[in-house]
Amino acid sequence: MKSDLHSHLILRLLTLYRKPMGGNGVLYPILGFASCVAFIYMSFGDLKLSSLPKGLSLSFVERNGSHFILDGKPLYVNGWNSYWLMAHSMDENSRGRVSVMLQAGAKMGLTVCRTWAFNDGGYEALQISPGQFDERVFQALDYVIAEASRHGIRLLLSLVNNLQAYGGKTQYVKWAWQEGIGLSSSNDSFFFDPSIRKYFKNYVLDVLTRKNTITGIEYRNDPTIFAWELINEPRCMSDPSGDTLQEWIEEMTGFIKSIDKNHLLTIGLEGLYGPKSPKSAVNPGEWASTLGSDFVCNSNITNVDFTSVHIYPDHWFHDLGFEEKQRYVSKWVRSHIEDCDEELKKPVMFTEYGLSNQNKDFQASQREQFYRTILDIIYKSAKKKGSGVGALVWQFLVEGIEEYNDDFGLVPWETPSIHKLTIQQSCRLARIQGLNQQTGNLKQLCS
Q1: Tens-place pLDDT, residues 71-108
Q2: Sequence-ordered strand ranges (E) for 112-224
Q3: Among 352, 402, 403, 414, which one carries the catalytic annotation?
Q4: For this structure, is 147 an active site residue?
Q5: d(CA 268, CA 79)
Q6: Structural domains present in the chain
Q7: Active site residue 92
């Protein structure tokens, strides 16, 4: 497609611009011209397909029972993960790729992107130490939100990591230990140490009340933000009963809602069932019920607006073949939709799903089959007005950011079958909502 060729040109120019040139100074004028061409194109080129009005008016997404509501009508979500958006917006020479990724998502009919709103300690941290921020990094997050708004994309912003990547709860525990006030050096003290709870609350307050330097809007008042995610994949293995994590979630969700009543809130769960759950047999193994979380119990907290589930059969099963994993995934997805239909009465979002290319039997065609299994179940739930409201693939990238890739990532337009499937799901969900209700790329794409 003409527009895809243009996108490739932009990315090639940006990649060339960033490469070291050694002593060949004659290339610099050429590179300067190339970067100008890229900038002009991204700002004004291919208006018919790629641009949406700056400052596109968005409304807050709300919840009514087990459905998302937008402007009084049900909303279903096809979206993706690009966790790297803030990190890649630090450098003016690379932030163009963030715009290209958001634009590409919009052109596939995607409406929500999940990304990190944290980087605690370490290299180019947002939070350098408790309550101390690098303004340059905060401005990078400002840029992500402003660009998302420009392209009609909403953001699911995650506030902290259970894992060590980008600091996570490990960094909070280190800070308390270094200051001599920590109760324990265990990572799980993040959930029960009063000093660390205070650190995290201060962080949440600063992020939610941040005034965007580009738009002038406080984050808590910006409908570009689809929802807040409390923590990515919480586990508290030191208390398998789940009581410690449950108490922490109750306290933190209440705190967030006391500051921001505009936005939806989810936990960031993997979807594992606890040891007391009648559905623990659905877990991928006995180990899954010993990690201190419980999908139903955690999600049943009043201030949790919608539930989240992750899908990684290759991490869970190392001895099963692809077909067996497929059958398990169908059961896993249906089980959580059933929970939300019958007991929780809340929407369920499958906020991460992916298939590793490192599996010994991996074939590229398996990804399409795997994605389709999940997306078909969600579509059927949505068509019946059920609680399965959407999914976010892990993860989409653009060319030139290999350092953020993993064994699940892909550039969607480089895999035509995935690109086609993604657009198909966007349009199927849009038709349920009513194409006459759609604006921008979705209406044009799906008509």
Answers
A1: 999 999 999 999 999 999 998 888 999 999 999 999 99
A2: 112-116, 127-129, 132-133, 154-158
A3: 352
A4: no
A5: 16
A6: 57-446 (3.20.20.80)
A7: no
